[in-house]
Specification:
The protein is α/β, with parallel strands linked by helices. It has 2 helices and 8 strands.
Amino acid sequence: MPINPNPVNWFEIPVADLARAKTFYESVMGVQLAENEMRPNKMAWFPVEMGASGAAGTLIQGDGFTPSHAGSLVYFNVPAIDAALAKIGSAGGKTLMPRMSIGQFGFIAHFEDTEGNRVALHEAPQAEG
């Protein structure tokens, strides 16, 4: 285990319609989400590989979980932002902020999912060589 792990280890994205949101994220991210229930909440967990870098998380439907543009912002790593934004549009989401350079750290973009959440993408800089 790293001496100083990254501070985020879990995230929850509020949804109004779990089935719709699950379909959206599966088509955009190219992954399968596992449905779970932790009463009284319904969840769809993103895949996790124990010991790998990055945070795991879930879509969550329940009282007190309201989709929003306000509040915390989750960034998903993607190989190519423009391709991801095209999938997002096709799946019912919309681009809020197109691909933007963040210098040596790569690129970012913001989108709205089918539930009304503001979510973000990160594309790592390409290694020169």
